[in-house]
Design goal:
About 55% of the residues lie in helices and about 15% in strands. It is an alpha/beta fold. It has two domains: about 5-85, Arc Repressor Mutant, subunit A, CATH 1.10.10.10; about 90-145, Periplasmic binding protein-like II (D-Maltodextrin-Binding Protein, domain 2, 3-Layer(aba) Sandwich), CATH 3.40.190. It has a three-stranded parallel beta sheet with strand order 4-3-5. Strands 1-2 form a two-stranded antiparallel sheet. Strand 3 (about 90-95), helix 5 and strand 4 (about 120-125) form a beta-alpha-beta unit. Helix 1 crosses helix 4. The longest helix has 28 residues, at about 60-85.
Amino acid sequence: MEIRRLRYFVAVAEELSFTRAAERLHIAQPPLSIQIRALEQEVGARLFDRDQRHVFLTQAGKHLLGRARDILASVEAAKAEVRCAALGEVGSLHLGYASSAMFTSSLTWAIKQFQSGFPHVLLTLHEMTSLDQLNALHYRTLDAGILRKSDVPAPSGY
């Protein structure tokens, strides 16, 4: 079932007019009618009753309308989630830190700011030594680390 056909169906169902739905969708009315007929064939049921002046949803059409709206809303939500993921606004972040780092107000402030700015990112904190953080970063089990000392030599092979 094509998403485009579901969009067309919802437009006709909401407008109860092929002409107005075609205008709303910025397409010609004959291709819209063809797409609706194709959808009816695909689902195996008439979705609309038509007469010379009116369009009515059938019982099958009423049922599909609710499902089609849910499907289209899910598609839009998925697109928004993917855009957010591409921007780093969803997902998870594993942050390593040296135990003494939590004694500074700047780290706790930064964590709170991050969580309020990115509420859909799961932040997982890992207390680790500086050397363990470097190893975890190398093996990609950490995304970022806060070292206690900046002069810790990186393990060989980095």
